[in-house]
Q: What sequence folds into this?
């Protein structure tokens, strides 16, 4: 399976947060699955860290790079096709970070690991 982390799922995974579902834990732990982390989530983390809404042990560049390596997660860039796909999405969600994740999920055939109920309103496979 090809899986895309929502930002909160990534942060909860690396901090072993109890809010992470057992289904998501098992899915991430399954080495047969391919794990992806969007540049949009990196942008969201960096933005929240800069605004003081998220405390990180290191600067976002070091922190994210290390966690991707440690957890065997592949970075997913934002392509123009992802950005323009957002135009075709219904406006279930106004968060631009989440909308680009939906677009990436659709175009790259990725299931999204998220607790966000608004994302499940889109034509995407949600794992939780």
A:
């Amino acid at each position: 399976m090809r899986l895309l982390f929502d930002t909160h799922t990534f942060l909860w995974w690396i901090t072993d947060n109890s809010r992470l579902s057992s289904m998501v834990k098992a899915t991430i732990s399954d080495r047969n699955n391919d794990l992806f982390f969007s540049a949009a989530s990196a942008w969201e983390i960096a933005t929240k860290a800069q605004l003081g809404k998220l405390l990180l042990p290191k600067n976002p560049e070091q922190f994210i790079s290390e966690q991707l390596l440690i957890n065997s997660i592949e970075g997913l860039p934002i392509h123009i096709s992802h950005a323009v796909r957002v135009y075709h999405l219904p406006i279930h969600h106004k968060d631009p970070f989440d909308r680009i994740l939906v677009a990436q999920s659709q175009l790259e055939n990725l299931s999204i690991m998220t607790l966000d109920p608004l994302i499940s309103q889109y034509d995407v496979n949600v794992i939780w």
Observations:
- The chain has a mean pLDDT of 97.
